[in-house]
Every structure is written in structure tokens, then in C-alpha cells.
Amino acid sequence: MATVTTRKKGTVRLPQEQRVSDIMAAARQVISEKGYENTLMSEIAERAGVVEGTLYRYFDSKRDLMTKVADAWFEEVLESDTELPRIQGTRERLRYLIWRALMSIRRQPAMSRFMLLEVRQNPDYRHTRSFELNKRMTAEISLLCGQAIERGEFRRDVSVPILRDLIFGCIEHRTWSFLRGEGDFDIDEVADGIANVIYRGMAAVDRASKSEIENVVERLEKVAEKLEERAGGKR
Amino acid sequence: MATVTTRKKGTVRLPQEQRVSDIMAAARQVISEKGYENTLMSEIAERAGVVEGTLYRYFDSKRDLMTKVADAWFEEVLESDTELPRIQGTRERLRYLIWRALMSIRRQPAMSRFMLLEVRQNPDYRHTRSFELNKRMTAEISLLCGQAIERGEFRRDVSVPILRDLIFGCIEHRTWSFLRGEGDFDIDEVADGIANVIYRGMAAVDRASKSEIENVVERLEKVAEKLEERAGGKR
Amino acid sequence: MATVTTRKKGTVRLPQEQRVSDIMAAARQVISEKGYENTLMSEIAERAGVVEGTLYRYFDSKRDLMTKVADAWFEEVLESDTELPRIQGTRERLRYLIWRALMSIRRQPAMSRFMLLEVRQNPDYRHTRSFELNKRMTAEISLLCGQAIERGEFRRDVSVPILRDLIFGCIEHRTWSFLRGEGDFDIDEVADGIANVIYRGMAAVDRASKSEIENVVERLEKVAEKLEERAGGKR
Amino acid sequence: MATVTTRKKGTVRLPQEQRVSDIMAAARQVISEKGYENTLMSEIAERAGVVEGTLYRYFDSKRDLMTKVADAWFEEVLESDTELPRIQGTRERLRYLIWRALMSIRRQPAMSRFMLLEVRQNPDYRHTRSFELNKRMTAEISLLCGQAIERGEFRRDVSVPILRDLIFGCIEHRTWSFLRGEGDFDIDEVADGIANVIYRGMAAVDRASKSEIENVVERLEKVAEKLEERAGGKR
DNA sequence: GATGAATGAGACTTCATTCAT
DNA sequence: AATGAATGAAGTCTCATTCAT
Question: A4 and chain C: CB distance < 8 Å anywhere?
């Protein structure tokens, strides 16, 4: 064949790991700025300081690269979390999980958009690392709710999957306009809002066991009775 | 493609309205069959019985055409609804609104996907007819909930916008895998599931027996009264 | 999408037929000079005075274009033949068919090479117009031989397909070095050579029916007998 | 591909001969499985247990490697033949040579294709070992035929080169569809077919009974004799 | 001698959009 | 008003070959 390559001398030789992470960093940058559709392999290559062909040494296709970038990001989000184990109480844990999701959206809106709009829509999303990580993430909520139900802290007549969809669906809905670039949102406020509704309303009351408020009231009633007795005796 | 249609110059000149609606019908058909990303202007033109150039006489761009198609579809979905006014009761109305949203997704998954993924993501979605219609649709839910709150049928400590996001977010979450083409879902089952959780739990008022909180409040009032009496007796 | 085309004014608008034939002419030219592998769509476009995209209006792919160029050439070769019907006699017709094949190779070596090396090797060659035309061409030989056999002019114990393969295989073998660009060959000489061997040797003798030579000999024998009788009677 | 082999620096330094033959074996394997056009240097390297760069220490280019592989294969085919010397009789030897060619095609279709389509088309095929070997192979046929002619077993009016081209051309034509991957062929049947036609017909000498032409000639001679006698009688 | 990361030229293809007719 | 041929920019991807290590 007539492919006679006259190679430039500017070749730098990096360890594989370094190259891969350079490329992924560049890719993440471009995706964040432009979104998947408008991301060009040529631009990623340029920013990573390599030629396009090099990208294909490490990634099978554009889609593959993009998916791996998304996976890595998702992994980071979940791994960087050292708080959860230290948080006590259903309500606080619930709030924290919602807060954490909101936080990752807030910090990396472009990656989040990419996740929701591209990665999740991929026909074989289900065979994706991101899918797995997402399952792990939603499992945390499911577990939390499931245990609360068992413990009698949450109502029995609520399906955990629907709870999960309510929570994550609500998070997404609340953040779409932010993701579209229209204005901002207050993480704490939203997290509280959602957590409160879910905790108080949807899952807070259990007809079978007595609620915390009820306990308090009972104690108040006993105090009142004693007061009455004393009053009656004194009178 | 090499489809060399040697069409005779028998150009038919239709009234503008007819042309526009032909084109929109063709466009809707194509989107429904192929999804937005696989919809070609050339195919729309072909099905509408015109050539590509003609499309640009009536629509500024592909995006413009698509947006108008989405708008029209949304309009139909809302307009075709003659049931709502006849339905009585917060719970039944709530269930119906959820059911109706699920139904339109079920009937036209491709249009729905298009709506959620493309139309809604459009940078100037807010100046869109679809945005307006969507607001109208969510307003129905908001109104319903707002009135229920005022009437004392729903709890006071719930923010209506969050309720709305819970409902629509949950609907979307529940239907994503269907929209991705993975399996199906049962409209009635999902509608019941969501409506029940929202109605029973979140808007935690039990109309048959008094609600827990109401009972508690009543009991607290009695305690307070007794304390007051005691105070009164002492005075 | 961001494809904002600022079109050049140099657009010439030709009737479809003209464009197609321009493109095919350009393609034939390039193929002839470079062979399939080294033929670039960009070069064809340039020579045809259009941009690459235009090629794809008329042809599905490079392969499609190439195939159609080959088909057209083959068609020309066969159609331009007005001689065959006027030629009489098995031997002369055979020689002519061989001559014609050699001639087309001689005139268009690059196209012939392309035909033998690329078109014929195509996995779906059998669904090609060229395949069909080739069958027609070989059918002429087969018919000729078949009729000669029936007429008793050719031997019975020879399979027509093998005859056909002998003839065309021999033509190809004889011309390969020419097609490789090494030297030349004399059409008449080769045509005579092949036709003679085939006619005389392979097909000339039929043990069952009497051959023409035999007939002649018989007549000679009869003459001889008469001469003998006369000689005997006279003596 | 993204196959990131983190091979340890355990470079094995083999004797040059071994390396070369490993590489050639790998190359042959790949060609056989995938055909020339789908053969990648990277795959050859992988199977040979070396890295791409190493191939270029031993071979100038892909073409060079491929050519040497073809040469070696051809050499083997010819060398491995210990039968020919033991076969007696023009006809049997002819059949055997045809059979051997068919056999090598049958056994290694990909190599054969490669030989016919690539090696033989190489601009400097004539300076190739394969060219030399091919000449030696065809020389066997030529010698056989030449001797048969001298011995009077074959007709005199047949050019040996044309005979050779008939034979090899026919073999190729018969096997193309097999080489294209369409169906199979029966080696013995084809070998018999070709050998019979060539032997019986083309080299039209029948050793058992006298050949037709010989018979005719004999009869003509008798006629001539009689005429001569008569003439003699008259004298 | 061996490695293997990097090159780079270019291949084919797509399709919304334009504008001469 | 309608046509539809033509545009052209950009897109993804391939692979033989090189050369710093």
C-alpha cells in the first residue's frame, strides 16, 4: 500500500495509565462543555495532546470512551463518599442520600446531563458499569427504606420500588431546569424538602405501632393525670 | 440513496394549511417509527409527498418542525381529554391524571421520548408551546393538591411543587425502561401504585377515621384544656 | 445541529443523467489509472467536478459505484458487437468469440483487471449485472459448442462447461502478464492459437458420427474404387 | 482495540531462524483464516508472540512478509510431492499434475486466493520466488507434453504454451467459485474431466486403437497407394 | 534485539440546508 | 410555490509503519 508515513519527532511516550487518564480527562472536559452529540473525537485528541488514532488504541469507539468517562465519574461520586456510614437515623440517612445525589448534579451538571440523557438512553445501558453503580446507589435507598419498614418505622403499605422512583424521579425533575442552564437551586433546601415529604408523609406514620409523637403525648397525658390527681387531692 | 424518482413536473399546489398538516403528519409518523435521532428530513419529505426543499418553506429547520410536531401532539393529548371534568374526588382525579400521563407515554413512546429527551432539553424550551402545555398539565395536579390542602383533605406541611415533581418524576422513572424499549408496563397498576402512595401517605389524611396527627392534636388540646382548668381552678 | 452551510455559488445544475454519466466516466478513468484499492472517492468527485457528497446521491457506496462502472463497461463490450450474427461456421464463430474477448482486454486492460480481480471476487458477485452479462457471454460459447456437438461436428465425450472453462481460463492465463503491464500480445495470433487447438483437437473428432474429414476420405475412397474398377475392367 | 496487555519485560531472545519461522507460521495461519485483505500485522504479531515492531526487524513490509509466506507455501507444495516420479504414462502423469494443483487449492483456499489475487498481481511478480516456482510447476506440464509430442503420442500441431495455459486456466476457472467461498468441488472428478479432455481430444492420440486421424491418414495412404498402383499399372 | 505507544494520512459516509431552475 | 441536485463540513474509524525507550 501507498501509506508512507513520515513521522513527526514531537512524540512523547507516556505510560499507558497516564495516557488513558489524560484522554479521559480531556474527554470529560469536552463532554462537559459540549454534550455528547457535539463532542468531537478530534477535539478530545487535541486536548489530550495526541492524534485521533491514538484514542482508538485505548477505546474501541467514541461511545466506548464516553461510556468509560461516565463510569469513572459515577465511580468517583460514589467512592468519594465517606460520610454515609457515620450518619445515624433513617431520616438523616435519607436526607443525606438525597443531598449527595443533588450535590453531584450541582457539582458536575454537564456530566449529570450526559448521564441522564446519553448514557442511560444507550440501548445497552443495562450492561454498563454505570447501570451497575446506579443500581448500587438506588439500592442504598431501597435498603434504607426496607429496613425502616421492617423496623416498623415506615408504613407497610408502600412499595419500595415506587418509593425509590419517587425519590430519584423527584430529584431529576427538580434539577432539570438547572441542568438546562436556567438558574440555580439550593441543595440543602431541596434535600430537606424531599426528605421531609418522604419521611413525614409517605413513610412516617404506622398505624400498628405507636409513633414517637404519640409517645410524647402519652407522657404528657400521664403528667396531666398526675396533675389532676394532685389537684383533686389538694382541692 | 440512489432512488432516482423521475417525477413528472405535475406539481400539485395545495392550500398552505393542507401542506403543513401533511408534513406534520408525515413527520410524526417518522418520529414514531424511528425515534428522533433517526428521523431524516428526506424521509419526512418523501412521506409527505413533497421534496426536501419544500419543508423549508414551511419550517425554519428540522428542529423547528420537530418542535411543532411535539407541540401539536401534546395539545392533542390534553385536548382529547373529556374525562377529567366528570371525575369526582381528589383521589380519583389524582389517579386519573397519573393514568392519563402514563397512557400517553404508552401510546406514543417515541413521541414521549422525543418530548423528554429533545424538546425539553432545548435551550429555549421555556419559550415553547410544549412548555406552556406542560405547565398547564402540571397545574392541574398542583390545583388538585392545593385545593385538597385548603379543604383540609391533604396535609399542610407539604410543598405543592415538590408533590408535583414527585408525581411526574416518578412517572418518568417508572417508564424509562419501557421508553428504552425494554419490556412493557401495566398502566393501571402503575397509576394505582403512584396514586396510592401519594394519596395515602404523602397527603396523609385518613378521611374515614381521624388521622393520627389529628387525634394527637385533639388529645393535646384536651390536655391543654385540663391544664387550663387546673390553672383556672387555682386562680 | 450546527451544520450551517454557506454554499458556494459555483453550483452547476445538470440533468441527472448527465451527472451520473459524468461521474461514471470519471470513475472509470480513475479506476483505469489506479485500480480499485487505490481509487479514492475524492478523486472521482474532483474529476467529475462535484463534491464527494454528490457521489452518494447517485451511488450507495464506493463498491456500488465501482460495480456499476464495471457493469456499464461490460454491457458496452457486448452491445457494441454487431459482427457475431454475420459470421458463419463453428470454427469462425468460435475464433471470433475468443477474439472479441481478447480485444476487450486489449483495449481496456485496467477495466479488465478490475473485472477479474475485484468485481468477480466480490462476495455477492452472483447478484451482479456483470455476473449476468458474463453468463450471457459464456453462454454464447456454450451454445456454439452444444450445437456443434448435436450436429455431430464436435465430439460427444466432452463436457461443455469444461470446454468453456478451458477457453476462458486460457484467455485469462494468456493475458495476465499483459494485464500486469508486462509487454503486449497479438490478438489474432492468440485467438487463432486457442481456436485451433479447441476446434481441431478437442472437439474435431467424433467417434460415433463420421467426421467431415472422414466423409472426404470416403468420397476419395469411392473415387479410388471406381478408378480401380475402371482400371480393373480396362485391364 | 483496547486490549491492554501489560506484558512483563520478560523478553525472550530467540535465535533469528526461530523467530522468522514463528512469524511466518503465524502469518500463514492468519491469512488462511481471514484472507489477505483482512490480515492485520497486529494479529500476526500477537500470534507469533511478538510485538508489531519486531515484524519489521525481519521483514521490510507487510507485502514482503506476505510474499515470503506465499513463497514458502508454494515451495512446500512442490517439495512435498514424492508421487510424481513414481507415476508412469503420459495420461496418468498429466492427471496427477492437475490433481495436485487442485489438491493444493482445496487444502489451502485462502493461500491459493492470495497467490492468484495478490502475489501474482504484484508489479514485480517476475522477480519473485513464487514466479520461479510457478515456472517450475508449469514446466513439468510443458515437459510432459513436449515429450509426448516428440514421442508421437501427442499431436504435433499444438503449441505447448497454449496447452499449458489451457490446463492451468481451466483449473483456475473451475475453482473460482470455491475460492469465493461458494460451495465445494470434487477434486477427482475435476481432475479426470480436465485430463480426459486434454488427453483424448486435444492431444488427440489414441494409443489402444489407432487414432481417428491416424486411421484417416492410413486410409488416405492406401488410396494414394492404389492410385499409385493404377498409375504404375498404366505406365 | 525487542518493545509497543504513537503516528497520520486518508478512507468512506451522512445529512441538514441552500438555491438555481 | 415547488423542485431536487448539490453542497460541504464534519464525523468516525483503520492500520501499516516508525522510533524513543
Answer: no
